[in-house]
Amino acid sequence: MGDRPGLQGDLVKGTLDVMILKSLSRGPLHGYAIAESIQSASDDVLRVEEGALYPALHRLELRGLLSAEWGVSDNNRRAKFYRLTAAGRRHLAEATLSWNRLSGAVSRVLA
Prior knowledge:
alpha+beta
């Protein structure tokens, strides 16, 4: 994720998975669009590299949190589109609650 000081490799374990799931909560996307969504939503603070994104997508698919099917992207290229499963939606809701608790606790400590 990004190359800014203090960000690379410093995210809490599982954060990328939750950001992927959140990106897909708005509808099916292919890998590049997921990376763009995360970068845009973070105001260009986070950049997800292919070497982290595709293994995470594969892991989430194996866990049954995503499904995937081949389609054609906006630029007319063959691409694998990912979508949340019902289990993925449940996991996203649980992970969001957990993240909000954790980030709130860290904010209180830093205040």
